[in-house]
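This section describes the prediction task in plain terms. A model, or a person checking by hand, is given the sequence of a single protein chain and must write out its three-dimensional structure as a string of tokens. No templates, partner chains or ligands are provided. The sample shown here is typical of the held-out split.
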Amino acid sequence: MPPELAAAARTLFGDRLDLAAAYAELLATDGVVRGLIGPRETPRLWDRHLLNCAAVAERIPEGATVLDVGSGAGLPGLVLAIARPDLTVTLVEPLARRTSFLIEAVDELGLGGTVRVFRGRAEEAATGPAPLLGDVVTARAVAPLDRLAAWCLPLAAPGGRLVALKGASAAEEIAEHAAAVAALGGGEPTVERCGVGVIEPPTTVVEVVRERVVAPARPATARKSRGGRARRR
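The expected answer:
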């Protein structure tokens, strides 16, 4: 860890800083070998990834159930589980090589009591035999806000929230996709800054409350025309 980041790391991870360091080591070794983290990212693991994700913990209520969509190497889901042992976290990831890494990381870090890994897409997590539902749904660098809301809001309990880690374009995304978010049952998106005074720059997130449950669109049905050919309606 760069010495200049030590104070911020202690603030965000507290007495679990050693556990965060063990996860950083996994990312810098197995994560790179398996192609989950680029080799050029290893010098910036702490500021660009771990601290950036850990700052989001301030937006999550005590004892919340968290679903991390498109978890990849565990960002931000595993970081939040390390920083906040009160949380119950499910890492939602469809790719086998990534879920294998996540399962091994959870085991090696001793997080099996509070973290589980779900292999599948967000749509499968929301509609499977045992649908997942969380107080907070997180996602990082996954997709534009309209698609992100379509994937994540069905996983949030009514009154729960999508907390999406975004960059400088957050306000522009809200302006462009607010109508789509509303059609999906989301409230007005807001931009929040996490870790102000602790990390620089602070982490930017977009938050959307799931205000109502919206039924999925029904597929078009075919009916026969008078000439016997099927028409869509």
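For orientation: The longest strand covers residues 156-166.
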